[in-house]
Write a structure and sequence with these properties.
Oligomer: heterodimer
Strand content of chain A: over 45%
Structural class of chain B: mainly beta
Radius of gyration of chain B: 14 Å
Shape of chain A: globular
Largest sheet of chain B: 6 strands, mixed
Helix content of chain B: under 10%
Largest sheet of chain A: 7 strands, mixed
Shape of chain B: globular
Distance between the termini of chain A: 37 Å
Order of helices and strands of chain B: EEEEEEEEEEEE
Structural class of chain A: mainly beta
């Protein structure tokens, strides 16, 4: 149980375009989802927390207009990188938490390369 | 503010031997949880073990166990009978409070020598 999927796993796009990444909880209802960014050989950096049906809470320094997060249902959250630039190239990981439980389960990640 | 510190950037262990990864943390939360996650080369984050801070008994999952010292704010991971598949980056994390955000350490890269 506790499987989280992400789509796409790989995306290459041109500078200035927008990219949408989906995160789904497959076998549980995720009341809270989290989005992280990870640079090579570094730890995970939390970007934002999203609760189903409400606005996401962004960490300090994360541009909310740049990284749009939508958590429209208990099994789906999306991260849209708007007007992507090469510095947005990174590994993006989502995680999901069920109800009052404490454990976060992670998706496999999405590699974004902006040319 | 919550912090998690992993002081060992890299560790190495012989296959079938035992290795201990260190982690210390600091938190202002009274109710919190501690986790070890494994990230193999695929970069999929995998939960290894979790510990509720209110429980005195150390958590155990097969070959993985923790030494939780609450007063010292220490949470080390012991891997027994190491296997080649254990080679990965290991992250210690703490979570809790209203937001339940996870705070991660910088990771320890574990190599397993055959």
């Amino acid at each position: 149980g506790a499987v989280v999927s992400q789509h796409p796993s790989w995306v290459i796009c041109k500078s200035g375009t927008s990219v949408k990444i989906e995160c789904r909880s497959l076998d549980f209802q995720a009341t809270t989802m989290f989005w992280y960014r990870q640079f090579p050989k570094q730890s995970l950096m939390l970007m934002a927390t999203s609760n189903e049906g409400s606005k996401a809470t962004y960490e300090q320094g994360v541009e909310k207009d740049k990284f749009l997060i939508n958590h429209a249902s208990l099994t789906l959250s999306t991260l849209t990188v708007t007007s992507a630039h090469p510095e947005d190239s990174s590994f993006y990981i989502c995680s999901a938490r069920e109800g009052g439980l404490e454990t976060q389960y992670f998706g496999p990640g999405t590699r974004l390369l902006v040319l | 503010a919550q912090t998690v510190t992993q002081s060992q950037p890299e560790m190495s262990v012989q296959e079938a031997e035992t290795v201990t990864l260190s982690c210390t943390y600091d938190t202002s939360e009274s109710d919190y949880y501690l986790f070890w996650y494994k990230q193999p080369p695929s970069r999929q984050m995998i939960l290894v073990i979790r510990q509720e801070a209110y429980k005195q008994q150390n958590a155990t999952e097969n070959r993985f166990s923790v030494n939780f010292q609450k007063a010292a704010k220490s949470f080390s991971l012991k891997i027994s009978d190491s296997q080649l598949g254990d080679a990965a980056m290991y992250f210690c994390a703490s979570g809790g409070g209203a937001t339940n955000k996870l705070i991660f350490g910088t990771g320890t890269l574990l190599a397993v020598q055959p």
